[in-house]
Design brief:
- Helix 4 (about 95-105) links the parallel strand 3 and strand 4.
- By secondary structure, the protein is α/β, with parallel strands linked by helices.
- The chain has an eight-stranded parallel sheet with strand order 1-2-3-4-5-6-7-8, with no helix packed on it.
- The protein is built from eight helices and eight strands, in the order αβαβαβαβαβαβαβαβ.
- The chain has two domains: about 1-120, Ribonuclease Inhibitor (Leucine-rich repeat, LRR (right-handed beta-alpha superhelix), Alpha-Beta Horseshoe), CATH 3.80.10; about 150-238, Leucine-rich repeat, LRR (right-handed beta-alpha superhelix).
């Protein structure tokens, strides 16, 4: 069911929830950018929480907050075959991240996890660590705009480094107050994986030290898209 950008609001979400309660074999639910709010999200999630068939769940830009995220996590607990989860710009904070991370920890088919601009912080990133470590199929990870800092990068790198069959293709960590310390950790990750094709690090605090390391690695890697705009890197390095 595709209902993105329909201006549903909370009232519309409640109406959709009533419809979803009687729908079987739901594979895709896209309610991106509808301002459902917390109550709308909770109603929709309660209506589908037993739908083990759902594969793709798009619910970004709906202001669901931590409480909405916790109800969404109950959907994920039963979604054995979930492959994509998009919950950006929802203000879920660390509590919401903890609930989602726990629900995703045993998901074997997750490929895309997009949680940007949720202000999960370092604590939220720590809560997601078990999920990142356990999942062997994630190829796209977007944690941009979450203020995870260098310590958060360390968590992400450690989690991804533990995977025997690394399949990460795109890693987005823009707007996270990352310095060259975190950047050098990412370079080490890049040296361990041959699958990463895209790395986004815009709007951080990376200086020349990190910039030089990135450029040096890019020359001998498969990365086709490296974005480091709005950092503290001298133009002559790039």
């Amino acid at each position: 069911m595709h209902l993105a950008n329909c201006q549903l609001g909370e009232e519309g979400a409640l109406d959709i929830a009533a419809v979803l309660a009687n729908k079987k074999n739901l594979l895709v639910l896209d309610m991106t950018n509808n301002k459902t709010g917390v109550n709308g999200c909770i109603a929709v999630c309660k209506a589908i929480h037993l739908h083990s068939t759902i594969r793709e769940f798009y619910f970004s830009n709906n202001m669901i907050g931590p409480d909405g995220a916790k109800q969404l996590a109950k959907v994920l607990e039963n979604a054995k075959y979930i492959t994509e989860l998009w919950v950006s710009s929802n203000g879920i904070f660390p509590d919401g991240a903890a609930a989602i991370g726990k629900a995703l920890a045993d998901k074997k088919y997750l490929e895309v996890l997009c949680m940007k601009r949720n202000d999960i912080g370092l604590l939220g990133c720590q809560e997601m660590e078990s999920c990142l470590t356990a999942s062997k199929t994630v190829r796209v990870l977007d944690f941009s705009g979450n203020n995870i800092g260098d310590e958060g990068v360390k968590i992400v790198v450690n989690a991804l480094s533990k995977k025997e069959n690394q399949n990460m293709q795109a890693l987005m960590l823009s707007d996270n107050k990352i310095t060259s310390t975190g950047c050098l950790l990412l370079v080490k990750l890049l040296q361990q994986t041959s699958t990463l094709q895209e790395l986004q690090l815009q709007n951080n605090e990376i200086d020349n030290e990190g910039g030089k390391a990135l450029v040096a690695h890019q020359k001998r890697s498969k990365i086709s898209k490296l974005e480091v705009d709005n950092n503290r890197i001298a133009g002559t390095i790039l």
